[in-house]
Amino acid sequence: MNNKRYVVGSLLLTVVLVLAACSGVTPGPSVKLPEAENAPVTLRLLTWADERYQQLYDKFHEKYPWITIEQVKVEANEKDIVAKVKELQKAGTPADLAWIDGDLLAYEQQGMLENLKPYMDKDTSFQDKVLPEGYFDTMDFRGRRLAVPFVDVPMWIVVNKDLLAKHGVAMPPNTWTFDDFRSIAKQVTDPDAGEYGLTTSKEFVMRLLPLKAAADGHAANLAYLNDNMTQSLLNTPAVLDDVRWLTEFVTEDGSMLSWSKAKEQHDVVRSFMNGKTAFEVGGDWLLPRLKREANFNWDILPFPRGKKDQYSFHIYGPLALLSGSEHKEEAYKWISFQFELEAQKWKIDEGANASVIDPELTDYIDQAPIWQGRNIEAVKMTKDNGLVLPGATIPGFSDYNWVNMINEIVFNGYDANHLIPVTNAWNQQTLQLREKWKQQTVKKE
């Protein structure tokens, strides 16, 4: 396309000079040649984003007026995304980009993903960006970059400060521990008033528990994975004790209700918004609603400190360029735009982290309206102490059913030892899948 622009420009210049020569007028510096216009392009983005993201689409359109983002809503699961990609391809209106849920390898195996590395290697604007070490680790597979994080979602413990104050408990410091967390949960629990330390929420199973295992040194990674993320440690004594620790909030402390007990109370304590619980795990999905609807004073705390370290829980949402796209260069512009300062600031405003390391973005946290009057230092902590949920390129990760299994133990009273045979089976499965992928790669080469 650049060569065509150059040829058109040369022809126009020739015409101008010929006309000028014929008229006896020499063109001066004020002569401005018309620029070739870009043909309008509409990019179809598969996403489960809410209406807030239209603001980001508009910012992108302002920068690239000829490119429009068309949001195609899908459910956040692998089955629906794959089905929609195939449906649009068959209809002759292929999708260009997609938020990815599930194993990236499942999409890669079906040939749906474009390798982003060549695009990023020649992207001069991207070369100037400083990113966290290992930023693409969960998106790269055997020399191919299958996706990039469209957002870095950090999480915190969300606190009902009014409920703490009612029971004479001060807001804990950012250096609080898991022992502090459990002690406070018990102190603010008053069954007669229908008040409890923890919301009856699977978020504690999904976020707090694996983070505790990592912070106590029982697992090297989130999801209870070992150092090289080839095996689950969910069948080890130390991690099983962690599971029992959270279960005791229900069975011994009474500071969190089981599903059946919560149902008896009309599920009031299954929602932090009701103001009847002191702690919940929250991220950017909860913050806007809190600002709009909460009728109590709330704030955030970092996840507690463990015996070894203090971490925060992060999710990197994968954004992929689809191989069936008919507008790959334009679609990559949307990917590159995610790392521009204006897009990064918008994400901070929405409660996410800045992915790019830049003093201007760090300073911007203090200005972001969403954090005014809140524990801003806790927000800044999550930039530096984050653990990212792995799994995008771990074979068979979508079959690793640890969340549902632990939910049954914590909230339904199942025996924690049930985790051992199931974990053993998955450990064998993921190794077999790795070997299968390795053999397929060798054949291709």
UniProtKB/TrEMBL annotation:
SUPFAM superfamilies: Periplasmic binding protein-like II
Database matches in Gene3D superfamilies: Periplasmic binding protein-like II
Keywords of the record: Signal, Transport
UniProt cross-references to InterPro entries, sorted A to Z: Bact_solute-bd_prot1, SBP
Entry-linked Pfam families: SBP_bac_1 (PF01547)
Official protein name in the record: Extracellular solute-binding protein
Domain of life: Bacteria
Subcellular location: Cell envelope
Similarity comment text for this entry: Belongs to the bacterial solute-binding protein 1 family.
Signal peptide feature range: 1-20
